[in-house]
Specification:
Elements (H helix, E strand, L loop, with lengths): L6 H18 L2 H14 L6 H13 L8 H13 L1 H7 L2
Helix pairs in contact: 1-2, 1-3, 2-4, 4-5
């Protein structure tokens, strides 16, 4: 069985898991996983990965960025993936 120990695989899995946790309503877990996905990504540019980050960013409930972990994720997105943030602000 293949092991996914590379930063790319880890970031992708964390992005998928974070999105699932957000959909399930677990903001703490979602925020922690999504922030870790960005930190571990080394600014990954795979289309599917970027779509998961974009979808996650779009699903953040209004006012939820007051949650410290979600605030960290949003800050990381502004720094590492500004195009996704800019696209959502249109």
């Amino acid at each position: 069985m293949a092991r996914f120990h590379t930063p790319t695989h880890r970031a992708f899995i964390q992005a998928v898991a974070g999105d699932a946790a957000l959909i399930a309503g677990d903001l703490e877990e979602a925020a922690t996983l999504a922030a870790a996905a960005v930190i571990n990504s080394d600014r990954l540019r795979l289309a599917r990965y970027l779509r998961y980050l974009s979808d996650f960013y779009n699903r953040i409930p209004a006012g939820a960025t007051r949650h410290p972990a979600l605030a960290e994720f949003v800050d990381l997105m502004h720094t590492d993936y500004p195009a996704i943030v800019a696209a959502q602000q249109r």
